[in-house]
Amino acid sequence: MLLGVLLIVSISPLFINFISIENQNNFEDFEAKAALIAAMDSDEKSSYAKYSDDETSSFSTAETFYFNPNTASQTDFERLGLSPKTAQSIVNYRNKGGKFFKPQDFKKIYTLKADDYQRLLPFIQMEKSNQNSYTATKETKPAIIVELFSFDPNTASKTDFERLGLSPKTAYSIINYRNKGGKFYKTEDFKKIYTLDEADYERLKSYVDIPKTEIAKVETKEDDGITGFATAAKMDYIKKSTTVKIDINTAKVEDFQQLKGIGEGYAKRIIKYRNELGGFININQIQEVYGISKEVFEEIQPQLTQTSKPIQKININTADYQMLVTHPYLDSKRANAIVKYRKQHGDFKSVEDLKNIYAISADILVQIKPYLVAE
Question: Exposed, middle or buried: residue 161 (CB in 10 Å: 0-12, 13-18, 19+)?
């Protein structure tokens, strides 16, 4: 007993001194940190505070509960033990349009520590609608129902081609090709459509059904306004010829129909354009008729002739705006400019005076000059 008391008495000064030294060291360390902070400017203090906040773990006071990262608030994230900076990063990510489709997406947050992610992963609950949205967006495509049936590419509608599995662009290309006078005479002609994939052609070629009866190029109008073709069995047959010569200034509708690729519709357009011009002055003007393709023109060009039939001319000193604007080579701007110039400067002495009008270019003047007179 006495020995124990003596031992305690002997080590007490050492123990007290140790406590005193430890406290002194802690206080000196505190004073050093305080002095360092006091010497910082405002920006450094802000950075220091932010650093301290980020590095200070709130795991010891964290709550655990199920949460949806798409709807949880910043407070909820902090309650889960995340730092204010990380909580704010999640909210910012959502505000910019970010979305979590599956629990693993929570790793997208670059400020989220790995241990926090592993700790919270079991508590992430996603709405089924979000998961379904992810699946639909990333994994599935709407099914395309394709029908297979016999069709004539000369008469099938745009809807028919799309039902056969062709894209709207390809379907439109086929209709556009026909509207310009194109024709499919045999199955292989279907490959003419440049937007048609080889795979689609191979898939559909056995369903192409072009009537064996020779088809007359007599155009009909279908309900949808798309140009079609009628067979000889349905309408009076117009015999085609590759040797007949056609005078473009005197030919009638039935005369033009003798040309390959020209039906009643195109024949009427040619005559209508001839009347609007006042007569053709050269064969190349046939190409200006709406719908006449380059291929059709080149095929019929050797059979076309042009007589010197008098051209109907417009007197630019008496014609009003309405008369001038009806001519194919004079648009509204040019017709109006001619009338205004005449009012300001008086009658034209010659057609060449039109070169003084800004709206009439040299090329237009050459084109329109044969159809005008200044009297």
Answer: buried
